[in-house]
Design goal:
The chain is an alpha/beta fold. It has two domains: 288 residues, Rossmann fold; 101 residues, Alpha-Beta Plaits (2-Layer Sandwich), CATH 3.30.70. 43% of the residues lie in helices and 19% in strands. It contains 13 helices and 16 strands. Strands 8-7-6-5-4-14-15-16 form an eight-stranded mixed sheet, with helices on both faces. Strands 9, 10, 11, 12 and 13 form a five-stranded antiparallel sheet that branches. A hairpin with a 5-residue loop joins β7 and β8. α2 runs antiparallel to α3, α5 crosses α13 and α6 crosses α13. It is globular, with a radius of gyration of 21 Å. It starts with 5 loop residues before the first helix and ends with a helix. This is Trehalose 6-phosphate synthase. It comes from Mesohalobacter halotolerans. Pfam families: T6PP_C, T6PP_N. InterPro entries: HAD-like_sf, HAD_sf, T6PP_C, T6PP_helical.
């Protein structure tokens, strides 16, 4: 099947997720061999992606209304290649490939193993994208790779109590659960900065939202949907993060990493969203808008102890998860991983709960490095998600030998 439309592309990504999950479950059962049909399916999907029409190194797909969208597929094709190497050539071949692909990989791996060597952890909490998973141009197609799931699976066995993946993305509705291939029971999965949570027993929890705020959020989402039905704005559903309904938050892409949208159109969308917010929340009491340059993040505010309303952050999420799942951080060794300033509140929350804190951040930003070191005395900085998950995996193998 030739891929011409975005809908067909995303259908293949859903099939990729099912195929990878089946392979991971098989690999977790050593008595079973991988069905050759799954390997054929991986090759077929990879070839379909490579055969999408290209223009100036970008892949061209159509929306339902025949608009052309330009995509880079570094993540999708790159992780398919890594999985192929992992499955057909083995672990050492993958390490060699990762060292060629990632700057400073060998040095990061060596430093990371030295850093973790004598440590043990009761809890592990990590951001996903940019931390334990490489960034992808579209969240819907950032399907977790096989090697990544196996690496994180191995590390979770070394964590005494619980492990958590905490992301800003939604949990449901084209969210974390739809792109994860991690076997159930290994990690609690938290979306919307921790507002929504599925524990290792598959039980769901949600951070409480005031009825009035939820009604306003529903009105906001309805107004955004109406706006995107207009031909002038319909393309924004298909680029970058698209339209994501998170628990207590809505994200709408106004640009993608390739700059597919003309700047004046992108800013026009932002103006329209601000108009909607002004009409719904003229006193700016319930919503806060954050513009990342690519995404418009519209967040419900939360009440702080001093009665000040602030936007919900991952620190609130960590506190909610710990209280809900009865995690006892006090005097316990906790490892937290992240890659942006939005992950720093997780460190603050752990310290407030008197954890013995260790952190690893993935960044090449000197300002962020300094902030990490200021907040956590026991910190390590690495250059790539592949380096981080390789460190965690090799640490776990060393612990088991």
């Amino acid at each position: 099947m030739k891929l011409e439309y975005l809908a067909d592309f995303y259908a293949q990504m859903r099939l990729l997720r099912e195929t990878r999950a089946s392979i991971v479950n098989t690999l977790k059962s050593p008595s079973k061999g991988i069905d050759s049909e799954y390997l054929v399916q991986l090759d077929k999907i990879e070839n379909q992606l490579k055969n999408i029409p290209q223009k100036k190194d970008l892949y061209q797909l159509k929306t339902h209304d025949e608009k052309l969208i330009s995509l880079e597929l570094y993540y999708e094709l790159g992780d398919l290649k890594k999985d192929r190497i992992y499955l057909k050539q083995g672990q050492q071949a993958l390490v060699k490939h990762l060292s060629e692909f990632n700057l400073n990989f060998d040095n990061d791996l060596k430093a990371g193993l030295k850093f973790l060597k004598e440590k043990t952890f009761s809890y592990f909490i990590s951001d996903r994208d940019g931390t334990v998973s490489n960034y992808c141009g579209r969240y819907q197609s950032s399907v977790q790779s096989i090697y990544n799931a196996m690496y994180l699976s191995s590390f979770s066995k070394c964590v005494k109590d619980e492990s958590v993946i905490l992301t800003s993305a939604p949990l449901h509705h084209l969210g974390l659960l739809d792109i994860s291939v991690q076997p159930q029971g290994e990690y609690a999965l938290a979306g919307s900065k921790g507002r929504e949570l599925v524990d290792t027993k598959n039980k769901t929890f949600n951070y409480p939202i005031e009825k009035q705020q939820q009604q306003q959020l529903d009105e906001l989402n309805s107004a955004i949907e109406d706006l995107l039905k207009k031909p002038k704005y319909s393309s924004f559903k298909y680029i970058g993060s698209g339209l994501q309904y998170k628990f207590g938050q809505t994200t709408l892409a106004r640009q993608d990493k390739n700059g597919s949208i003309p700047q004046h159109e992108s800013l026009d969308l932002k103006d329209k969203i601000n108009e909607i917010l002004k009409s719904l929340d003229p006193e700016e009491e319930n919503f806060k808008l954050e513009d990342t340059g690519k995404d418009l993040e519209i967040m419900l505010t939360v009440q702080e102890k001093d009665s000040q309303k602030v936007d919900f952050n991952k620190g609130h999420g960590v506190s909610f998860i710990a209280n809900t799942l009865q995690y006892n951080f006090k005097n316990q060794p906790v490892l937290i991983c992240g890659d942006t300033t939005s992950d720093l509140p997780m460190l603050d929350a752990a310290k407030e709960m008197e954890a013995i804190l260790t952190c690893i951040f993935v960044t090449n930003d000197d300002d962020l490095k300094q902030k990490v070191y200021e907040k956590c005395e026991d910190a390590l900085i690495v250059s790539s998600p592949d380096a981080l998950v390789s460190i965690l995996y090799q640490y776990s193998k060393n612990k088991n030998t």
